[in-house]
Amino acid sequence: MTRMPPKTTQKKTQAEEHLFNIKLESSQAELFRENSSATLEPVDSHPETEVAPKSSICNMPSSSESTVNVVLFGNSSAVCFGDENILLGKEHVHPEQDKFPRRREISGRDVSVINILDLYEGEMYLDPVEYITGQLLNENNIHSFIFVLQQRFFTDADKLGIEWLQKTFGESVLPFVMILFTYESEEDSDTIIDDLKKNPVLEQLLQKCGDRYHTCSKSMNNQSEMKTLLEKIDHMVSENNQRCYTAEIYNTTSTQKEQLQDSKTQQTEDEAAGANLTVDNSSEAKTEEQTKIIEGDKEENPEHGTAEDRSQQFEEKQKTELFIKLNLTGKLEQKMKMEDVLQITKPSSENDLVHTFLQRLLLMNYTARCGEGSKINQTHSDGMINQTHPVAENADENDIYNDIFTQENEEAVQISLVHPMDVQMALFHCSDHFLRQLMVTKLSQCQYAVPLLVPNPFTREIEFPLWTFRQIKKSWKTTDKTSNVISKEKTTVTTDDEGLTKIMYNEKAIATADTPMVAFFRLGDVSSSKSQLIDSVINKKHSTFFHRHCTGSNTNRLLMDGVVEIAWYLPSGKSMDHFTDCVAFCNLHGDAGAQQLEKQVEILSEMSSVNVVFLPNLNKNDKRMAKLQKLYKLSKPMICLLSEESSHVTQMRAGKYRIGLKDRNQSAISKELTTTIRELISKPSVTFKLENVAKHSGIQMDEEFEDCKRGREAAKHLTNLLEGKDLSRNKETHLPCQGRLWKKWCQMNKELHKPQGSYIELKKSRKQMEMKKLREQQKACGLREFMKMFIEKLNSQTTDEMVFVLKWITIFLDNYTANISSFHNEYYEKWSKILNLKKSHDKSGQLETEQAELEKILEKINAAAFGLEHILREIGQIYESNTCVQKNKKEIGKFNVSSLPRLVADLMISGFPLELMDGDTAHVPQIWVSAVLDEVRNKLGDQRVFVLSVLGIQSSGKSTMLNAMFGLQFSVNAGRCTRGAFMQLVKVSEEMKVELKFDYILVIDTEGLRAPELAGMSTRHHDNELATFVLGLGNMTLINIFGENPTEMQDILQIVVQAFLRMKKVRLNPSCMFVHQNVGDITAGEKNMEGRRRLQEKLNEMTKLAAKEEACDAECFSDIITFDVQSDVRYFAQLWEGSPPMAPPNPSYSECVQELKNAILRKTSKSRIMTLSEFKTSLNDLWNALLHENFVFSFRNTLEIAVYRKLETEFGKWTWNLRSTMLSTEDKLLNRILNGDPQVAEKDLIENMKKKKEEVMELMKQYFEEDKDKETLIQWRSRFINKIEELHDELVREAKKKLDEVLQQRKTKEKLEKRKKEYENKLFNLSKELALRLKKEETDEHALKREFDSVWEK
């Protein structure tokens, strides 16, 4: 019968647990030696391991008759379960629910399969393991333990598999272990040897198992492979002298466990009774106890391994327990992904540290790392004070000793603390490449240090996560008061007000930036906080590096030793800057003297510009002196910070300084250190570039991951086509469909829907023909090599590879277009020259020439912009042109055009935004967007979506707010960073779908209104059209306002309301919320109640006016756009907590964003939720209605429309006065002409109209100057005066033309009468002569006719 160790109910300290494990392993080893010495002989294939005792011998008949008992352990992800799976069958059942063994027939043999896959992972210290293993061995003798691993996917958790097996079944199990590698493709099956050579850890693991392994397909459906596996098991059993692993071996191990446990328990009870002392629950006492156990005398227990080994085992156990505490079990292998995080979920509880950290980090809330909520199983989470010692009724009130100095037993009240940095690093280790990148990007935005070198918590392999830095961009201003020219890759040069200091603006991808680097080390234990001192140098107001005095810090730090973090100081170009250029600061956590940190010290010391070392008082013979001497002998400058000295900064040798820390003011130390570093880095020195860290051997780089490498290669191959070409002509060359042809087509399409003048149908027909020709020209452009290669790459990649390709393309294009700064410098110089010409009142015409050149430079800047959005836009135009021109033929070369929407739909589902409105043409490509939405619907189903859009003035923080709210990455920058409109899907978690009644939020980000870049391009019409489109499209629109004054947005909303009233056939259900950004006063909501009331009254008044103008029934603004002035106006704190570029985001801003998000979700129940197909229909209906609208968008607000219509009415009266006068004048002059007066001239018309024209002009003057709306009317005065002048001149011209025609007709009539009379007289005379001549002759009738004809012909 299987014996199980009894469960102990008494709690054990971590040190006692570790001691128990050491004793257990010792006893197992002793038992193993006794058994093997008495009964066993070594096994040739595994000389360092002994086989089981003779009592474990089991009968093993011939292979045709035998029943083979095998145990499969490892990871279930290495196996594909199914009906064809010969060994494991259709489905995987966790061992706790499974009834094993399962009988299988393989190659005519009876195989008993015991499946305990997934048992070891995360359950190394849990009771179910003991129960299941006891049940397993009760009736089964095991021939082989098969460790299942997936080839090419060897995880950290897999490395613990054999260790778990040994701890559970004892050392005697190793001769019975074989590794089974599974592969997905046939090609992989041939590369196992190469894979082993590449992975030394895997090779060592295989050696531990006696070099026994087998390979098979992941689906385990190959009979030949399974037969070979059984043959290898037979061979292994033969090598083990027909022995099996039996219950007797396990019972012996269990007995030893029980005896050691009882002994330990008794010892603990005796010590507690004898000492009668309370346990000191301070972290110092706990550390001391652990040190005594871990660093015990090696001579007393030589078989236990070195103290270092025992310390490492203890640390690994603590780390494993940490991952279990954080609910990250299994995530080291099955990494968390972006889609797991970027969802609408319920707020996490404080005890869910990982998700609390993530939610705050995505909100750019730097309190994510402040440790709030880092207490697990906290009894008093509400912040109430614990009463640890209830006072007895008969207690002596004068006896204060127990109250003050006696503490309750630590084990009874211990609150399990998790260090905030352990939460961050555990999540980092459990995240995939994209989630890591997002994490690091957000940490950098919070002005936090980010991981540079990261040791694996279990294997200690060092990883350099370069990929995580790729999206980080930093901006700073470099100052130079000398005449030296500082060379920068991407700079814009300006000067200060006095012209004495050269200021260069820099914006760079931090991975490629060359900067000085200062490395910080600690040798031994020092009382001062290294990280805190670095913070005082970088940013005194913000803890860039987490230190012991930060909120939530504790001594339970497990994952930070050996981690190197990096942060950058970014100057602002002002006199208060600590440094004049960007400087990198690297901080090595842990004792730099430790052997396992040698590689980190080597890399940092080699790449640094300055080394700073924190030191205690060291003896000359201290082993750390060797490390210190090595650093000191380097040619690099070095600063020694001495914790036990109080001296000021002192130069020891050239480039070598010392500063005392003891009993000194922190500010003084910080100032001395800053000054010394500034002086040292001002001299020529080594510069640091992140990309160069990868050149060091002995570290792993995340960009060596296969998908990442292939993505980089594909992207580089693409962007190489752009190298060496003119920046301003690249789009024209490689993306021809979206250039001049597309812009002209959009302009014609808008004109087509807004016909004017006469012959409308003829004009429309001609425009349609021209538009079709433009589409044919677009199609004729075909696929250029760049686009052909881009589509090929995306079609041939998996989803992850595709995302890598797109991200690498973005990175390379950003680097490529960085040279656009030369255009900006050229623009700045030309603009400065124009300003000087204006000041000098230049009359030579040079000013006009320079302005024309300035416009050309601006065109170059716009043409040089080349990003992923332009590539995707080109795909859309290729699809539209081919769809419009040839309905039946939809292939270009070997590409099926109909597949393009499916390709981009995959991108949209993967989290990439789709361009909804082209920012260069302000036009929606309806055919393309509809096709993509159809494909999204085909892939996801007709999902329910809540449409959330944002609208606001340029640079008011729209994209920043959406990014913080949903963890997105819309473009954020000064100026017009977003052009047009983009939409992105945000998934709703399953638990929230039930509550919210929709599946996705469709987030729409838009470009800013009132953009100076659009001046002179019909800005008002563009803004009003965009605002109407965005508000009409969204279930909820966030009206973003910078400051407290909503006037500009108020005007736009009035136009939107009037436009909605005119779109009677479009079904709209808009609502809005006002968000006032950068409001510092926390009482702004209360103080602006009057302002909100006036806003509502104004909007209601304008709505009534608009409804009257459009003959609609609407009484208030909320009748058209749902809005509650009490709850739908929000005030946000300023974004930055200080002055950029070193200022972190304001936590109050993040809290405001979270409150707004919650408010939006509460309001979703009142909205009409659309499906994807309904959204597509609504989008097309709305855009078509906007194309037909030709009136309201040109006005500032509804009042202007009403005033303008009134002016048009008056203008009609004035024009009628002129027309009626002209009609009378025409009649008078016509009568004169008819009465024979041929002297009518143009001056007669002017003389007759002069008086009436003067009267009309006077009426106009009175109207424009005396009407109550004269302030509004003044903008149209000159235009209408010109129109009256033009009308007068046109009337005169038309009247003169008519009179001239009458005069010409009269003259022509007179000429005709005269000629008629002449012909009559001539004919009379000829007839008379003929009659007289023929009178004397007798002729017949024919002769008479002949004579008459001859006369007539004359």
Automatic annotation (TrEMBL):
Gene Ontology CC terms: cytoplasm; nucleus
Comp. bias regions, Basic and acidic residues: 283-316
Limits of the VLIG-type G domain: 942-1183
Pfam families on file: AIG1, URGCP, URGCP_9th, URGCP_GTPase
Family annotation (Gene3D superfamilies): P-loop containing nucleotide triphosphate hydrolases
Residue ranges with Polar residues bias: 255-266
Protein keywords: Coiled coil, Cytoplasm, GTP-binding, Nucleotide-binding, Nucleus
Domain of life: Eukaryota
InterPro entries reported for this sequence: G_AIG1, G_VLIG_dom, GVIN1_dom, P-loop_NTPase, URGCP
Entry's Gene Ontology molecular function annotations: GTP binding
Family: Belongs to the TRAFAC class TrmE-Era-EngA-EngB-Septin-like GTPase superfamily. AIG1/Toc34/Toc159-like paraseptin GTPase family. IAN subfamily. Belongs to the TRAFAC class dynamin-like GTPase superfamily. Very large inducible GTPase (VLIG) family.
Protein name stated in the entry: VLIG-type G domain-containing protein
Protein species of origin: Pygocentrus nattereri
